Input
Amino acid sequence: MKNNKNIYIETYGCQMNISDSEIVASILTNNGYHYTEDVLLADIIFVNTCSIRENAEDRVRKRLHYFKSLRKKNPGLVIGLLGCMADRTKTALMEEEQLLDLVAGPDSYRHLPQLLEQVGTGRRAIDTILSVDETYADITPVRLDSNGVSAFISIMRGCENYCSYCVVPSTRGQERSRDATTIVRETRDLFEKGYREITLLGQNVNSYSWKDADRIISFPDLLEQVAAVNPLMRIRFATSHPKDISNDLLQTIARNHNLCKAIHLPVQSGSNHMLDLMNRKYTREDYMERIEAIRNIIPGCAISTDIIAGFCDETVEDHRDTLSLMEWVGYDAAYMFKYSERPQTLAADTLADNIPEEVKDGRLREIIDLQQELSLASNKKEIGKTYEILVEGKSKRSDSQYFGRNSQNKVAVFTKTLSGPGEYVMVRITGVTSATLLGEVV
Ligand code: 5AD
Ligand code: SF4
Output
């Protein structure tokens, strides 16, 4: 089956895309291709793309021009585009700019071997049809760029929430859940290979639902099953939608030591007017109620979020509502973006992208500065506490130090011990920055 062809995959965007690249690597290595980490050794280059914000698309375009330049030395080089940008940009990138030989959308990866054969016969290949049931459930991903300790497991695909700013429902299609038995099997397999932390991935994991022979498995049911694989396997998940995060889920997390005490709950804005225009289906008050539920049911749980600055019609008051909500929650961490209009979204079709760039920039700056303060304040509270840290590897700054994470997903750096990557150590926190805890093993 071996065909001596080297494939190289470059991934942009979210964790889901990293997980998809691992599925692509698995499909192709099972079909005789060899995976390389060196682009200059590649016979085939795949770029797994993200459409979520415009700057992500711009970066991909620049990279494709660089890859095209490699064809001068390697005329047979095949360049393929995967993922969220596939359907939308295929004509421009393939026909007009001659950058691509192959385009495959997020549900077409099983066809890559045939698509590559088609390219081998001198024809370009395109497959961007979205599916209603593809979950790649039976495919064991090849772990790329792995630390051997933590891995992603994709549990569902697509999204049907139609937040008005978001391109995902159009690029990734209908929501579908993956067979729970294959998720549990993949977790067990990873544990046996030495992994100690998995992150279950979906656009809205709270709506996970799988019909087993005799019952429906909900997301809390799935978490219980995965947690039972081994108490030493830590479980995280992303992303939760505030409208769907139930007390049942929170109680499940509180009950199981190895379900991590960290919840990522994207708020997007603190203003009810913005939340309405964003089609988020909850109010500021609903969101605050859910935060209180988290604080009551899982004491000590870390909370992180996503925020968009400068959405359509956003006033100074709307922006202040976001800042005040951030302070009220006291987020431990946040991913912060300025609004970027995406084609084929509700907002692009019905709302005006009417906040000037410099205003968006200014508001984003204020949000980032505030989060910096909140992260530092949150970390300062950790001084003197002792945490169970899963060691991930050597610290980047010093060979004599390790780094790892606590259940709350905070990174800690501490002096090396006999216990190495994949093992748990107890660390007392002695100092902090806004990004890291510093500590000593006890
Ligand atoms: N502009 C800016 N940010 C966006 N996000 C999604 N779509 C857009 C957009 N058009 C952000 C949201 C989401 C995160 C993954 O990306 O905050 O939660
Ligand atoms: Fe986009 Fe909203 Fe779906 Fe998240 S939940 S992927 S923001 S549409």
Q: What stands out?
A: The CA atoms of residues 326 and 371 lie 8 Å apart. The longest strand covers residues 386-394. Residues 159, 161-163, 166, 168-169, 203-204, 241 surround iron/sulfur cluster (ligand 2) (CB under 6 Å).
